[in-house]
Design brief:
alpha/beta; 5-stranded parallel beta sheet; 7 strands; binds magnesium ion
Length: about 270
């Protein structure tokens, strides 16, 4: 798993630099899911940078599209896109849009407004079943996504259809755009809710690469149900001064702090 930790570290460093040069936000949302994205792209997803459109590839949909820079970093590390593209993130002449875009090789679907990712992922999972394809569909959602009615409609339909080829990963950092989730819409026991709605559920530490790999390599959790992995994470993980803060949602690290922050990320275990 050491390579996954190194990839996650590089994702964090890239996101700090990209949001700074793009003068954009959401660094907290990106750092929260860095370890999940690293394990997905390094160990789990059947995808090929030499053949990004291969029909039998696994599909990954990032529903929290505002954190797309973390996926762009993973795609660059895997060879889907040139690393040079990262430096022009969120710039008028760049190729990487602020919110994740399917115009970028390796990205399946553009998202931004929350609540769109899972409904599309459910459609992809049904399509795979009709095609009798072994490909799997993964969708990463956020606290904000879990406030959206369309997400819960998709959850009910996925359970009804017993879509065992679908896995939802919740980046459960308990912070969203305008506040701590318990103060906005408290999800209370998300595990109980999802189980009652017909998903098989496992909770993990979303920063422990071994635990992430163990969960994602033993899917489906139940042969007759869609799977949900609730990943307990920390907003802005890796930058102690901004961990678990609402301001990290719209934050970028200013010029005068950036080198110290990157040094700290490099030295962290
Ligand atoms: Mg959140």
């Amino acid at each position: 798993m050491e390579n996954c930790r190194q990839i996650a570290k590089q994702i964090r460093i890239d996101c700090v630099r990209m949001t700074n040069s793009g003068r954009s936000g959401h660094v907290g949302s990106m750092l929260s899911m860095a370890d999940l994205i690293a394990v997905l792209y390094e160990k789990i997803l059947n995808v090929d940078p030499k053949n990004p459109e291969m029909p039998e590839r696994d599909r990954f949909v990032l529903s929290k599209g505002h954190a797309g820079a973390a996926v762009y970093s993973a795609l660059a590390q895997k060879g889907f896109i040139p690393r040079e593209w990262l430096s022009r993130y969120y710039c008028d002449d760049g190729k990487l849009m602020g919110h994740i875009s399917h115009k970028v090789p390796g990205v399946e679907f553009s998202t931004g407004s929350l609540g769109h990712g899972l409904p599309v992922a459910v459609g992809m999972a049904i399509a795979a079943r009709y095609a009798k394809s072994p490909r799997r569909v993964f969708c990463m959602t956020s606290d904000g996504d879990m406030n959206e009615g369309s997400t819960w409609e998709a959850i009910m339909f996925a359970a009804q259809e017993k879509l065992s080829n679908l896995t939802m990963i919740v980046d459960y950092n308990r912070v969203q755009a305008l506040g701590h989730s318990e103060d906005v819409i408290d999800l209370r026991s998300l595990k109980d809710k999802l189980e009652l709605f017909g998903f098989a559920v496992r909770e993990i530490d979303g920063h422990n690469c071994e635990e992430i790999y163990d969960a994602l390599s033993k899917l489906p959790l139940d042969e007759n149900k869609p799977s949900a992995i609730i990943a307990h994470t920390t907003k802005c993980k890796g930058i102690p001064a901004f961990e678990n803060t609402v301001k990290s949602h719209y934050k970028f690290i200013p010029d005068e702090e950036i080198e110290a922050v990157i040094e700290a990320i490099k030295e962290a275990e």
